Automatic annotation (TrEMBL):
The keyword Oxidoreductase applies. Coiled coil: none annotated. Keywords: Oxidoreductase. It comes from Paenibacillus dokdonensis. It comes from the Bacteria. This is SDR family NAD(P)-dependent oxidoreductase.
Length: 312
């Protein structure tokens, strides 16, 4: 069997690190795409030791920066003959953040990191993915998108460069949920666009996983207490890492594309009713996602914007 090559973004902590360990243990060549090189080098050595696989590489990547993405993809394509699996795991969610932050390209930081950055990376790596016999792309989504079951909830397309930062209050969870909804819609459209090249694109609806100590370390004191309390009941990242692995390698998902997959590895369907009992089932279950995500106008809007912002 040819050695398979997988890129995992944000592989230095949490689910990304657990996934890197899983792939390395199974004999894959793992390329960690990380921004904090000092810390990530230590993690890389830890992964090599724990997996007994020396093929764990590290390339610098800041997913919020288009320049960094171009540099990462250029270096990757020069070094590796193809790409088999691309896992967009890195995300920005700064619990308790009250201020708008902008990326180097002056895009709201959550959107730059969680939606436009992954879109640009997939675009730049498409030819390398095409070279694989079974190329698969996976996006880390979240149950937070359930807020879109509320018919009033919409992505504020007019504020993705922080245009209203002096006027509209910054809500970290709204911005995070909006960016993950955008990522889901981009998954659906990318799956269509890349179907003829044999590239499968799916998203995983992550429900809850223990937060890493590195992530908790970045929080304010109050959020630290809350996160540690939640961690008492949440499952370990390894369980979700196993889902990454299964979706990206198993025969079961070999021909699956354009799907949102839940933590039980079932394909989630768009909701058909967002009222009454059906709506309660939507909110408390994990088998339906908001119809907002399949509205072609919404998809066109995020698709066109992603193309416009990342071209050039
Ligand atoms: N944990 C959960 O309960 C949960 C629930 C729903 C969805 N998810 C999703 O699952 C994925 C992994 O979550 P996690 O809990 O494992 O998170 P985590 O431990 O906080 O890890 C996030 C990773 O993303 C990296 N990252 C953030 N911004 C980056 C950037 N601009 N460039 C490169 N890397 C960047 C971080 O690197 P640094 O160390 O440099 O910051 C870190 O390695 C995320 O997409 C998240 O939205 C998680």
């Amino acid at each position: 069997m040819k050695e398979k090559i997988v890129i995992i973004t944000g592989a230095n902590s949490g689910i990304g690190k657990a996934a890197a360990l899983k792939f390395a243990t199974e004999g894959f060549r793992v390329v960690m795409g990380c921004r904090n090189m000092e810390l990530s080098r230590v993690v890389q050595m830890e992964l090599i030791q724990a997996s007994n696989n020396k093929n764990v590489d590290l390339l610098e990547l800041d997913v919020s920066s288009f320049d960094s993405i171009h540099a990462f993809c250029g270096a990757f394509m020069k070094k590796y003959p193809r790409l088999d699996i691309l896992i967009h795991n890195a995300a920005y969610l700064n619990h308790g953040e009250k201020e708008y932050k902008l990326s180097p390209e002056h895009i709201e930081l959550t959107f730059a990191t969680n939606a436009f950055g992954p879109f640009l990376m997939t675009r730049l790596l498409t030819e390398h993915l095409e070279t694989s016999e079974d190329p698969r792309v996976l996006h880390a989504c979240t149950t937070n998108i359930k807020h879109f079951f509320d018919p009033k909830r919409k992505i504020d397309f007019d504020n993705l460069r922080g245009e209203f930062r002096g006027v509209r209050t910054f809500s970290v969870y709204k911005m995070y949920g909006d960016s993950k909804m955008a990522l889901l819609m981009l998954s659906f459209r990318l799956a269509e666009e890349l179907k003829d090249q044999g590239i499968k694109v799916n998203a995983l609806q992550i429900n809850r996983v223990k937060l890493s100590k590195e992530t908790i370390q970045k929080m304010s004191p109050l959020w630290k207490v809350l996160a540690r309390a939640q961690n008492l009941i949440n499952p370990l990242p390894a369980s979700m890492a196993d889902n990454y692995f299964h979706i990206c390698t198993s025969d079961e998902f070999k021909n699956v594309t354009g799907q949102l997959i839940n933590h039980r590895r079932e394909c989630v369907q768009p909701s058909t009713s967002e009222k009454g009992i059906a709506q309660l089932k939507n909110i408390f279950g994990s088998n339906r996602y908001p119809s907002y995500a399949v509205d072609t106008q919404n998809i066109d809007r995020i698709w066109n914007l992603s193309n416009a912002l990342t071209e050039g």
